[in-house]
Every structure is written in structure tokens, then in C-alpha cells.
Amino acid sequence: MSFGRRRIWLIVLVFVSGILCSAIDAQTPAKKALSDDPEFARVVKEWTTRPEFISPLVDHLPKVQGVPSPKDVLGHYIGEPKKLTYYNDILKYYRALAAATPRVKLVSIGKSNEGRDLVVVFVGSDESIRNLEQYRTYLGQLADPRSTTAEQAAQIIAKAKPLYHLSGGLHSGEVGPSEMLMELVYRLATEDSPIIRQIRDNVIVSVTPVADPDGRDRNVDWYYRYGINETEGRTTGAGVPYWGKYVFHDDNRDINYSQVEMRSLLDWYFQYHPPIMHDLHQAQTLLYTFSGQAPQNPNLDPILYGELPMMANFEMAQFAKYGMPGVWTHGFVDMWSPGYLAFMSSNHNGMIRMYEIQGFSGANTQKMRLGNPNAAGGRGGRAGAPGADDAAAAAAGRGSQSQREWYRPWPATGEFDWSLRNNTNYGETGVITALQYTSQFPKVILENFYVKSRNSVDTGRKETVAGYVIPAGQRDMTRVERVVNLLRMQGIEIGRATAEVKLQEGTFPAGSFIVKRDQPYSRLAKTLLEKQVYPDPNLRTYDDASWTMGLMSQTDVREIADKKILDLAVDPVKEKEIHLAGRTTGDGSTFAVAHNGSNNMVTLRYQLKDLKVQAAEKEFKQGDAVFPAGSFVVSGDAARVKRAVEALGLTAVALPSAPQVPLHDLDLPRVAMYSTWGNTQDVGWVRYAFDKFEVPYDLIYKERVRKGDLKGAYDVIVIPNQGGSGKRLVFDIEPRGQPIEYKKSDKFQNLGGYGESDDITGGMGLEGVAEFDKFVKAGGVLVTLGSASFFPAEFGLAPRVDAARTSAQFYAPGPIIDADILQPEHPIFYGYDKKTIPVRYASGPLLSVQTGGNPFEGPPPAGPPPTPQSVLMRYPGGDEHVLSGLMRGANEVRNRAAIVDQPSGKGRVILFAGNPCYRWQNFGEFNLLFNTLLNFNDIKTPPERPASSTAGQ
Ligand SMILES: [Zn+2]
Hints:
This protein is an alpha+beta fold. Helix content is 32%, strand content 18%. Strands 28, 29, 30, 31, 33, 34, 36, 37, 38 and 39 form a 10-stranded mixed beta sheet that branches. An 8-stranded mixed beta sheet has the order 1-2-4-3-5-10-6-8. The protein has a 6-stranded mixed beta sheet with strand order 20-26-21-25-22-27, with helices on one face. A hairpin with a 5-residue loop joins strand 1 (104-111) and strand 2 (117-123). The chain is globular and about 90 Å long. Bound molecules: zinc ion. Zinc ion binds at residues 171, 174, 281, 283, 389.
């Protein structure tokens, strides 16, 4: 820990003088310069709805010959009512600015899903930008304390500058920050006030102008199509059906960086190592600054938990000093889940920061009515249109934002108009203040970054958990490959054991993957691989309570306490992505491909779609090789089969003759995925998985369902988790008295992506329900996931199935729990070799199935209920079956059905209480869905038992 006492004193002296300077600066944060643009000051004052909604930091803007301001390129000042900027114009602005001043530089970091350029914009002093490469190198050296001694670190810190990264537009409906950042970058490049000069000299600022540019353009189109005409009491009542290609808010929950926009930023991160990453959201009143409240991830450095409130409190105090109300900290988002985008930094020994600034999804000025904290009860209402984040906050019972609290000493109250410029003023004042703090203490930020990195290596050496082994020789190495690659993507060092490994925990074969904890990202490795032990069941968390990678992927990952692991000889995995090739042995024209649970089996089937592929219904052996039930028997084009099997990491053996077990043809189903217009995100995650595993499908909406003859077009229809209830799935967005179309037009090129509608409101209605019922009765397979499983139960498509809800006390934010497989012969379980498997609990319905008799008759007779054959999987329930995270009231799910296969007419409904395809995380469950697709017409109706009773509760 010793950083050298003398050095610390020196640094303290620097701080003290910094604080004194700061005190003086604060009196005159930004002296009005003669060169300021008078028109800017005039309109900004006009657009700011109250005098207290602006600070002296942002009420003026310099005019500099030869350096374009946002208005020079965009034609309007930032924050003008009813003006939002398309992504291309945002890029145009930054490019023009970068071309005009040596203080701004733009780098490309990739392409979005829809092909838009992803960029990072740097701004700093001429010197900082000229020597950016050198500063980048310094940060890289501080990030790895194994190759940088404390002595060297001190020398580097003396020369280095912190890089402070800001992101706007992660959530496309949160439009303000992407506008504001243009003005900020211009101001940082051009203004000569003491604060800005100090920031420019001491800090390098980098900016993601729009983290989800595809969603930005779609949302801006939607605003100009509908939002711009909205007035109080007359709203569209519906948001644009899509932001990015697949997800909405979940780009801020993408723990495995599946989305290309998030992954590109992560790749950039490892080039520059910004010690601070700050996401700019807009959902709270008037500005919430994240301070990392409980529950907190205890793996992270205590330094971080000091830094977070320190900066947040500085901001809160500065705002108060400028006379701006409504700024608060603490009581909103916690430090438990590591999946928020800016966690990229704290997961790698830096600092996550986050704002929620008051705003709307468009640029109209709107009336806000806040509660009066002095009124009876003392709790006011919430302002603004509730977004998903808001809804989560409300659901989590977080209090009113007009209430005074210790962490909200000056709440905003009463009624007022809120404008886009107010949003700009708050956001820009906050960010400049955060940068002011950073510029005041640049060496502390850097020193902390270095020490946190060093502590991460040290704690890995000292703590009980010394590392992890992912054994070689697992049944399905494709999921091992995925886990290794996800860890590598996050910069975690992994080696392969050069020989057999003997540790207290066991003996592991040569080639096993070894994660040693004496590395800079040892804390992240632990966070991702350990079982989450939730610190306090009475605390709510903003997102998931668990994410344990080994359980989620059903891959064997061993926690190792034996310190010998740190000295094991390993071959470091140098590649960013490994590929474990599969194996084919023997020659012949018929191959057996073992189904060991790889999600690549479904890809193989589709890659060989023109070949005859059958599934073995029982296990068989070929030489030493065991082929579990569900293994493929493939005939024809041996070279192609071999190539595909090996590329997909699977195992195949040529057969001298057909195996002596029953086989069925794996016919390819015609698949549709049903989406409401109101909830496309969880559908998006399933679409993403299907796209990645090359499963073709039609994405259909109410329009197609109402047309009828679903069975004529499809064999399987999947309804992903959405809606929250059967009723909401059926009736979806409430009609608004006029159609709301979602269509591409000459004017609105970004609308109509992924589906079109003349009117997105109204849902499929009862008409649609009848069509789904016909589909099933005519032989279709309807698969419902998570909350979509309320639909067949509540609307009679699966009349024997009941769907109930948990009690108000029950609380289970995505824990991983046990599930018991009751019908192991069912094709849905091909590739699973255990009777009990870990699954993610998804807060879907509590399913139960009535057996025998008329399902509409009275209560069942007393006595222990038999488990109906149609219950394929069941939650044993109880605390002892919670494997990771939190499930408060775990008895409520005891013996509830997890998967039900309910025949109906010639078809069937397969209901999942959980979500087997969740956010690119629970890879171990994906096969439940893929097996259903591949075996859609070979699922045998389970015999009904004669007893009349209710079971599976
Ligand atoms: Zn947001």
C-alpha cells in the first residue's frame, strides 16, 4: 500500500492549492467574454423556463473565428424547443469541429447493427490531443501494476492526465444529453474561463456522442412524426416500437456485451483505459447523480466506494451554490449488478458514473407537476412520462422525488414548465462540475486508478478464492469456449494448464482453463464466476441479483482456494477469441453427432438443412463413444458434414451401419416469432439468439395473426416473454382514438424497421386469440416464454393449465435456482444429462396443471396430488434451491411447474414459466427452446393419468 509518504504529502499540497484556486474560481465560474455570442445568451435565457434552471457555467457561449459552433453547422442552438438532431448531423458537427481545431479529434470504433459509424470524440488542450498516444500509453501502464512499480507509477502520474469518458444516447428516448454534448465539446475546445481552461489543461475528455445511434434516428423520426404535435392532455400514448435492432434499455444491462455498439466501446476501452466512464441518462427529477448505494458488490475496491459519493456530493453542492434545485444522490441505483454500460470502467478498476437528468423523449416544453413536500403525507407525485427505468424505480418502491431527504436536501417542487434547454443546462452544468473536480484532483484520480488496479492483483493473492478452473474434457466444450471468450472479451487473463493439475479441490486434465486471481481484473473474474451471495434480503436492487456465468451456461467452473493455482504452469490464451475445433472420426457417408447440450446443434441442423438428419430417441454407443438421446444421425455429403461438425466444435463418428435405436426425422419447422408492438425488447433478445445460432424465423405481429391460417404458414410459433399478463399480451397498446402507424416513408426513413403497421395500437384482440387457438388445434406448436405463458392459461388455449402470481412479499430479481427434470425422455431435454439443472428464475407465472376430468369442474379431491405427465420440469423451491442471488419467499415456487407440455387438438402448447433465452446469458437453457423447434413434430403426447386432481403446484 505504501505509495511513499513524501509523495503523498506533495500530492496533498497540490490539492490544497487546488482547493484554494477552486474557491476563487467558483466566484466567477465563467467571466463573460467580449467574444461571447449575444444571440446565444438571449435565446438560452428565453428557452430556460425559470431563472434558477441555469448556471453561470452555461449561460453564455464563445464565438470563435474559424471554429464552428453547433449552430454554425446544425443551424440552431442546442436546446431549442422542438429541435432534435439526427445522428448523421451530430457526426457532421463533430467532424467539422475536429477539422477546425487541434483540440478535438474523432476516432472511428466500428459500425452499429444498422451500419452507422460508431465514434469517440476527444477534446483537450492542443498539447493533450497532439500527445494523445502518449497519454493513452500512460493509462495502459497504470492499468497493469505488475509491469509498473509504485516508483514508476509515481513518475507516470506526474506526467499523465486522466481520461474522462462521457456517453449520451444509450437510451434513445433520453434525447437531451446527445444534444448537450455537442455544446460541451465546443465549449471545452473554445472557452477561456478559468474552470474550462483548467479542465482543458488537466483532463482529456472523450465522448460517445450517441451510444445507440440506430435507436437515436428511429426515436428522432418518431418525435417528428408524432411527438412534436403532442400537447398537454393530448399524447400519442405510445413510444416508437424499436430503438436499436434488438433492444431498448437492455443495452445498459448487456453484461456479456452482445450488442455490437457496446462491444465496440469495450474494445475501445482496452486501448484507452479511461479511469472514469459516465453515462448520461434522463429519467429523474431534476438531476440524480449516482453515488453507489447499497446493495454494493463487495468485490470492488473500497476506494471506489469513497470516490463515488465524493464526486456526487461535490456536484450536489455546486448545483446548490448556483441556486439550482432538485439535485440529489444516493436513493436510486445501487452497486450490485455489474452489467450497466459504464461498469465497464469500475469492473476494470476505474469508476462508473451516471446521471439521470429530467427530460422527455422529445423536445417539446412540457408542464411538470411535482408534489408538495409540506402537504399531508409529505410524498409528492413523480414527474415526466414514466419510462422503463422509471417504472422499475416505482415498482421498487423508491420514494417521491419532491421529498426532502438527507441525500436530497433541496428537492424541486411545485408546477413548472420543463424545456429541452433546461435539460441541457442541468446536464452540462453537472458534467462541467464533474470535470472541474477531476481537473482539480487529476493526480488523485490517476493514483486511485493505479492503486485499485494493484489492489486487485493483491487481493487476488490474499483472498480465499485464489482462482478458477474450467476443466477441459467437459461434455460440451462449445459452452466452455463461450465462457472463456466472454471472459477474454472483458480482458481477463486465462491460461491453459500445460499438464495435469492437482489442487486441493481436485485433479484436472491438461488443457484445463486456469483463471489466476493475481491479475489486474481478478475482481471482475470473481464477480462474474462466483455465486452471488446477496447481502441483505430486505434491500431491493435495480436489476438482476445474479449472473453466475458457470450456472447460467451450465458449464463446470470450479472455485479454487488452493494458492498453488497461482504458480501453475500455463500457456496464456493470447487470442481474444479461442475456437475449440470439433472432431470427426472414421469415414463413411453416415455420421452420428453427439448431442451433449451444445447450442450449436441447432446451427448444424440448419447448416445441413438439405441433408437427411434424424434424432436418436435413445442413447447408443459406437466404439467407445456414447451418443445420448437426441444425437443426430446425418446422411450424405460426408465432407460437408465433417466440415460443419468440426467448425461448430461438435463431435461425430462415422457409422458402419444405422444405430439400433428408434430414430425420427428432424424436419425443419417453419418458425414464427410473435411480437406485440408495445414490448419488443425481450422478443429482441430471442431474435438475437436465433440470429446468432442461424435459426430462421418470421417475425410476426398482430397484423399477420389476424389474417388467419397460421397453420398454413407455420409449424411453430414462439411468443417470447412480454406484456406481463395474458390480457396485456392480447390487447397491448391501448387505442388512442386515431391510428398510430409505424411505417417507413420518404420523410421518415428510420421507421418501419423490423415490421410495419398501419396502427400499432389495439393488440391482436380476441380475434387474434381465436387464430392462435385454431393454429394449435390444427397441429401447430405454440411456445410461450415467461410472462407470455399467462396468455394460453388465461385465454383457454391450455385449459388445464392455471397461471397464478406470487404474493406481494415475494421478491426474486432474477436469481438462479434449481429445476427438476421430470420427463427426461422428452425431446426438449435432449443433451441434458442431469436430473436437476440451474435455471434463471424470470418472474413468470406460477403454473399448475389439472389432470383428468373436466378442467372447469370444482376443486380436486384431497390427498397428495400426482404430478401430471404434462409437467416436464418443476421448481423444487425453498431457500436450499436458490443457487445464486436472491429469492425472498422461495417457498412460493415450491413444486410449481417450470415447463408444461399441454396437448390441444392436433397440436400443443409448451409453456415455460421461465425465460430460456434471457439477455444472451442463460446459454444452458437455450437448448430447451432449440430442442422444441427441432423436434416439433416428434413430441409424443404424454398419457393422461386417470386421477382427477391438481398437481404441479
Ligand atoms: Zn436511461
